[in-house]
Write a structure and sequence with these properties.
Layout (H helix, E strand, L loop, with lengths): L1 H25 L5 E7 L6 E7 L2 E4 L27 H7 L4 E3 L2 H10 L4 H4 L3 E3 L3 H5 L24 E2 L4 E2 L4 E9 L4 E8 L5 E7 L8 E3 L2
Length: 214
């Protein structure tokens, strides 16, 4: 009887391991290629990742167009600077563009988000927000496994008069307008495993990620 119980426990453990492996691989069905970009305008060096056919910067943009907010950079160069929407649209290097809403949806899909959920607003995607975060700054030293090294940092955001959410949340502009006053963003928060899609004022200042032109 004891041997039978041991066999059952072993079988359950193996099945659990197989299931967990399947979950980790579920969102990534193409190869990831990591590389480096040097911005010729100021010599800044950025890490990149090719996800399927898209090449993303995996560090926040820090090119200083007139009027950007530089306070987060005091936390470390990888935090980048904050841009309002108009600044963000022109800040990426030549042959790169500010990630569009569709670029983010494609990335989220690769990580396992359904098309229906991707088109929604608010917090979406179970563990996907957690996968996008850097491994240390959000977890206070605890390194978590993720299928992609996207290295999102909690640089916070600003309404133009004060900084909010520094070391607690991140907001990234997309190049996609909602209307004359707002544009789509992606948001992450400490303690929140999902990723947010919402319309925010173009006058706000958020972080930026660039994608290589097709």
């Amino acid at each position: 009887m004891k041997k039978v119980a041991i066999k059952i426990i072993c079988c359950l453990a193996i099945m659990s391991l197989i299931a967990s492996c399947g979950q980790e691989e579920k969102g990534i069905d193409c190869s990831l290629v990591y590389g480096t970009l040097v911005d010729p305008r100021d010599g800044s060096r950025y890490s990149t990742v090719t996800v399927c056919d898209a090449v993303w910067m995996t560090q926040n943009l820090r090119y200083e167009v007139p009027g950007v907010l530089k306070d987060p950079i005091a936390l470390g160069v990888e935090y980048g600077v904050l841009y309002n929407f108009e600044q963000a649209k022109v800040a990426c290097p030549e042959n790169w563009h500010l990630a569009r809403d569709e670029d983010w949806k494609t990335l989220e899909s690769v990580l396992g988000m359904s098309e229906e959920e991707g088109a929604g607003t608010g917090w979406r995607g179970d563990e996907i927000g957690e996968h996008l975060k850097s491994s240390i700054q959000w977890q206070k030293g605890k390194k978590g496994a993720a299928p992609i090294s996207f290295r999102a940092l909690p640089a916070g955001y600003s309404d133009g008069s004060s900084y909010q959410g520094v070391e607690k949340e991140a907001r990234f502009w997309t190049a996609s307008e909602v209307d004359a006053e707002t544009a789509w963003i992606r948001g992450l928060e400490i303690g929140q495993k999902k990723v947010k899609r919402s319309a925010e004022k173009k006058s706000d200042y958020n972080s930026c990620r660039c994608v290589l032109d097709e």
